Sequence to fold (278 residues):
Amino acid sequence: MELKVLVDNNTIIDRYFLAEPAVSYLIREGDTKILFDVGYSDILIKNAQKMNESLMDIDYVVISHGHNDHTGGLVPLVKYYSEAKAEHFNYPHPTLIAHPDAFSYKEYEGDDIGSSLDRKRLARYFNTRLVTEPLWITEHIVFLGEIERANNFEKIEPIGRCEHLDSMVDDYVKDDSALVYKSSQGLVIVTGCSHSGICNIIEYAKKVCGDERVIDVIGGFHLMNPSELQAVGTLKYFSEQNIETIHPCHCTSLEYKINLSKSSHVVDVGVGLSLDFS
Fold:
């Protein structure tokens, strides 16, 4: 599997890409191309072009959860595909995979923080598969669906409110999910923001894939200002694991990158980074 960072908070030094506080990864596994999250704006398209990467042959668009820093790029992506169709270029019709709640209305302190496109509009441009159960995209890559929240320290606080069954309720971001690549050496876990808890995600990935070995975790760990309970529990969890390398980024503070480096080799992430896993 090859993973290229199209969008992140940072860029790799001496590479002239654009950054924003968001996430998008281009993943290639065999003949399958997957766009995991789409960032906040159109920079995923601009950065892909600078990398000489085509977005006109994407097989799947996978959304980790419904916040606008992970879904905002859907609007320029749809426009990009629509303009290509108008110019009679081959128009891709990717399958969009997400949790069923990913495109519900979400707000925080009165501000809209969710996707600008709802299910109905997305269905005009994508084959949509909205699932809560794990979904194997290829023989080796799985979308985890709704993550089991099993431990007693990642007690998730609601992030604003969301629409559910025609009413507004506290949003515990049940739509937060991840991708896992099952390699011969172990698991590579790709996250968006880890609102469901990075440790919960890792444990659920092991359960779904039937493999206790984790060789890398890349993405947001949602460790900006965690509670003391979550901070202590998370650092203890990583100290007990045998994860050689991790790539925490996006919503992971420098403080927690340093703390995590006591247990695993922490590698910096930025737009332009390319990773290969066999």
